[in-house]
Specification:
five-stranded antiparallel beta sheet, 3 domains, f41 fragment of flagellin, N-terminal domain, 8 helices, alpha+beta, 490 residues, Immunoglobulin-like
Length: 490
């Protein structure tokens, strides 16, 4: 060993150890003061990132729970409005029954009854137009127009503001199923098509031309697979299929506009003559009847008629879902006929965001419930069109008014039942689910982030002892240099 005065090599090891222990001790002090095992990303990056995501989820669950509470309060306020309307309908029923007792009433009595009826009708409209929650009229819903179809084979993309609201839904009748442009070989493909001069196909789509040459001895049953791989590589909007020995090529898009052309180097493939360009058979556009309106779409897309019931509508038909539904209906021996497909349009969707992520929205739809929209479509001899028109001016009017009031009661009761189910099975259940998710997330975040205080105190004591020991060693490591200095004094 060299007797060096320039470097104290013996002190390097205890110095580095002391510095490391000092850094660990600082980290332990931070854990002790914060109560957290992780205080910055550098301590354990993957765990820290997971912990931050869980913390973000906790905040989302907390706000979603508050949103759900608000939704429940909103629905309960709506229920109080329904109760007021029901009370007024009871009054109406009582007054009309009194007026229907024709033999005991004179004109002045009927006038008094009519006045009380008018007052109750005005009270119903007042409740509908003025009952509010947080300065928002409860029965008005949102200003936006909302549309949906009760069958998943149709997806609504958007709806216009002038679309006509339908209380029962606009029936959708499929009149023409959309198809795709296609061509099919005239004869079955055989090994002769793939001999020494194998089949070559040219495809023309717009201004593009692509050529595919089959190899000699190609298996005819594998032709469609080869072409589909080729279409994918070349990004061509075509599909190939092989059925009963014949090859079919069709466009990927529905409708009369997408077309393509094809040419084969052999006779009797797609056309009688070789090298003759054949244009595909055009597809069909979808055609439906919605609420009695004939609509011819483009491909599988349906566009509402301007100024009609479906003004501004854009909707897409899904062929795969329609096919699955048809198969299910064919396999089931259903005694009941399929449910009618309905387009529901409402300008009063009630929307509540009750989850932590985008799209976790609870909605219900409330039709208009003012007196002009209650008691509609009730056949009566007095030609009363809605609840607002009920009258007791004659015995017949009183009798027919009873029918309209009963219909209005049924309608209000039905809507109350819907929002009751909405509150119980969706909002209140969601509140329970959120509480459970929040507890589980909190437990997971705690297991990652929170410090084990007993272990932390034990480590702190250990580091204190190590620090003291290394400090003493570092102090004694300077003794060798002192011995060298005594040589000069000697």
């Amino acid at each position: 060993m060299i007797a060096s005065l320039q470097r104290n090599n013996m002190a390097l090891a205890p110095l580095h150890s002391y510095q490391g222990i000092d850094a660990d001790y600082d980290q332990i002090l931070t854990r002790t003061s914060s109560g957290l095992a992780l205080n910055k990303p550098s301590e354990a990056t993957p765990k820290f990132m997971l912990s931050e995501k869980l913390r973000n989820s906790l905040g989302g669950y907390a706000q979603a729970s508050k949103n759900t509470d608000t939704a429940i309060n909103y629905v309960q306020s709506m229920e109080s409005g329904f109760d007021q309307i029901n009370q007024e309908l009871k009054v109406l029923k009582t007054v009309v029954l009194h007026a229907a007792n024709d033999s005991s009433l004179d004109e002045s009595s009927r006038a008094i009854d009519q006045e009380e009826i008018n007052r109750s009708l005005a009270e119903i409209d007042r409740v509908v137009n003025s009952l509010s929650f947080a300065q928002k009229t409860i029965f008005k819903g949102n200003d936006q127009v909302f549309a949906r179809v009760n069958n998943p084979q149709f997806t609504v993309i958007k709806i216009g503001e002038k679309a006509k609201e339908s209380k029962m839904g606009h029936p959708i009748v499929m009149e023409q199923v959309p198809t795709k442009a296609s061509v099919t070989t005239l004869e079955e493909l055989t090994e002769q098509n793939f001999g020494e001069d194998p089949l070559v196909l040219d495809f023309f789509i717009g201004t593009r031309k692509e050529t595919y040459s089959f190899s000699p001895k190609t298996d005819p049953t594998k032709v469609a697979e080869e072409l589909n791989r080729f279409f994918k590589v070349q990004n061509l909007s075509l599909d190939a299929s092989f059925n009963q020995g014949k090859l079919s090529i069709q466009h990927k898009n529905y409708g009369s506009l997408p077309v393509f052309q094809i040419r084969a180097n052999q006779n009797d493939v797609f056309s009688a003559n070789a090298n003759e360009i054949l244009t595909s058979k055009p597809g069909l556009d979808i055609q439906v009847e919605i609420g009695g309106e004939e609509i011819l779409g483009k491909g599988e897309k349906i566009y509402g008629r301007k100024g009609g019931k479906t003004d501004g509508l854009e909707m897409v038909w899904n062929a795969e879902i329609a096919k699955k539904q048809a198969e299910m209906e064919a396999n089931e021996d259903a005694k009941e006929s399929p449910k009618p497909v309905l387009l529901e349009i409402s300008n009063r969707p009630f929307s509540f965001h009750i989850g932590k992520d985008q799209g976790e929205v609870a909605q219900f739809f409330l039709p208009p419930i003012d007196t002009k929209h209650l008691g509609l479509n009730v056949k009566n001899e007095s030609k009363l069109g809605n609840l607002n028109e009920i009258s007791v001016k004659t015995f017949l009017h009183a009798q027919d008014s009873i029918l309209l009031i009963d219909q209005a009661v049924n309608e209000i009761t039905q809507e109350r039942g819907k929002i009751g189910v909405f509150q119980k099975l969706l909002l209140e259940q969601n509140q329970k689910d959120l509480a459970s998710k929040k507890d589980n997330t909190l437990s997971g975040e705690s297991a990652i982030r929170d410090a084990d205080m007993a272990k932390t105190v034990m480590e702190m004591t250990k580091k204190q002892l190590q620090s003291s020991t290394n400090a003493e060693i570092l102090k004694n490591s300077n003794g060798q240099q002192k011995q060298y200095l005594r040589l000069f004094r000697a």
